């Protein structure tokens, strides 16, 4: 997926992960649906996959594209990383993997929840780290020593609402465009599934209607339909929802059909938007096989988790990895470019060392945000929103 306290034009060509989700239950030990009221453990393999997708996007932003990152390195990443850059260009597809994961997790988290509880869960998950990241990035980009262009104070304030993109304001976080995609998905799912009450029939109908409506929207070329139905991203969310139904019952033929259609349409959109072999000015030339392969990997990895094939991947450290993914996603792009500039052009560290240290520093910052922002504020905000009438 794509993405300015920096100028927005360059970031829009990039890709970034969508917001990671919490509270992932463990797979059912048999094909039948879990018993009502049964509390399941955490799918730690899904936490690990989220971090893998986030790292894919970070590698893309540091070594797989041109634009503002060139200012950080001083030259094109193609010159800094002649071999890595060709593979890093596929890292933007981590966004598609995130959307598949999001479809799975949102269907799980909305099952049996009231609309108020669903809203409180989503808002409390997204907002605390997001607000702090907006303030932090705005402050850093306002420093005289930082070369990137800061947004106006008014646009920075609008960014705190998460509605800057539809309002046409410059974005503080280049990656926040994916949050706008996620919010629209949450709204559709809440109105069509959570509000009337989630059950298999309603979820299947939602997936079928959304798939058809998104295809119609694509054919109609109607901006309002595109805004609401998101035809380019819908197949990934729908495929993830189908995989959650598979997680509940692996013999569910309709669920497998939803997954298959989601993949087939999703790979079409990925190839259509990212295949650039005929563009002589492209940073790197992605192949159709490579694009389809990465999308297939995302679907296959979530399917393996849904089927319980990765139950043994249950290391506690993967829970930490999952917790770091969202704050890492928020800060890694623009602040990472600042760190690269300091390490590589300021301290003259080799490219490989600057690259590794930048990733490590962004993961450390993500840990600090999780420890001192998300852990204390998320439960308080969820409790406060749950009490609102």
Task: Report what the structure shows.
With 389 residues, the chain is mainly α. It has helices at 8-11, 44-63, 69-73, 77-80, 84-88, 94-110, 115-141, 153-159, 164-167, 177-194, 200-220, 223-229, 234-248, 253-274, 288-306, 317-346, 351-387. 50% of the residues are buried.
Following the backbone from N to C, one meets helices and strands in this order, namely HHHHHHHHHHHHHHHHH
Rg of Cα set: 20 Å
Helix content: 55-70%
Largest sheet: none
Alpha-carbon distance between the two ends? 36 Å
> What is the count of β-strands?
0
Low-pLDDT sequence parts: 1-39
The coarse overall form would be: globular
Mean pLDDT: 88
Name some characteristics of this structure.
mainly alpha; single chain; 389 residues; 0% strand
In short:
This protein has 389 residues and is mainly alpha-helical. It has helices at 8-11, 44-63, 69-73, 77-80, 84-88, 94-110, 115-141, 153-159, 164-167, 177-194, 200-220, 223-229, 234-248, 253-274, 288-306, 317-346, 351-387. The chain is built from 17 helices and no strands.
SSE topology:
Elements: H1 8-11, H2 44-63, H3 69-73, H4 77-80, H5 84-88, H6 94-110, H7 115-141, H8 153-159, H9 164-167, H10 177-194, H11 200-220, H12 223-229, H13 234-248, H14 253-274, H15 288-306, H16 317-346, H17 351-387
